[in-house]
Design brief:
Helices cover 72% and strands 0% of the residues. The protein contains nine helices and no strands.
Length: 214
């Protein structure tokens, strides 16, 4: 940013602006107009510097936001495991937990649904590419199927949570083993129409709603 400040100071001098300190001022504030070809060259340099600086700031922000989503996924992972195994650790001190009938079962069920509601969407909000995008697309469709169908076979919420974990881990392994780096489909353009519709209908956590834009 110091180079930008120096360029603005030079522009102010060339265009007749009597400004002692340009720090904190915009290019419009210091540009008095005119100045000939030399001033135009400086304006072009300032434009390029400002564009580069904006790109850099956006990149830093995106990196920070992706780390937030990753932390959210990790936190959700730990909380959901406690919810399916012993929700009293989190809520035992609250009167409503002790006095509401079957509330512990409801929390345990919510715990294994956490995979589809928060964990996988948080990971997808980072807008990953390559095999990870493919893995999370599979997981996003597979985890609700597990959470809906597994209770037919078992009422153990921890087992259903583990089944979701295995599916997500398996999705990563499958995507890594089968992903074609040269013929990848990162933008989803090669997906069939029904699959695109399904993603669009179900996807509330891909990042568009949370600010993680490219």
């Amino acid at each position: 940013e110091r180079d930008l400040v120096n360029l603005r100071a030079n522009l102010a001098s060339l265009t007749g602006k009597d400004i002692e300190d340009v720090l904190g001022l915009t290019t419009e504030d210091v540009d008095g107009g005119g100045g000939g070809d030399e001033a135009d060259k400086i304006r072009n340099k300032i434009d390029k510097k400002e564009r580069d600086l904006l790109i850099e700031r956006r990149s830093v922000f995106r990196g920070w936001l992706k780390n937030v989503f990753l932390g959210q996924a990790v936190l959700s992972l730990g909380l959901s495991w406690i919810m399916v195994t012993d929700p009293s650790i989190l809520f035992g001190s609250y009167g409503w937990f002790q006095n509401t009938r079957s509330i512990d079962v409801s929390i345990q069920v919510l715990g294994f649904w956490w995979w589809w509601l928060f964990i996988v969407p948080s990971l997808r909000s980072r807008r990953p590419s390559g095999f990870e995008k493919k893995a999370l697309d599979i997981a996003f469709l597979g985890t609700p199927a597990i959470s809906l169908l597994a209770p037919v076979a078992t009422k153990d919420t921890a087992t259903i949570w583990i089944a979701n974990f295995v599916l997500v881990a398996g999705s990563y392994a499958f995507a890594y083993a089968t992903y074609d780096e040269d013929g990848g489909n990162d933008d989803g353009s090669k997906d069939p129409a029904w699959l695109k519709f399904l993603y669009k209908s179900l996807d509330f956590g891909s990042g568009r709603e949370r600010g993680a834009r490219q």
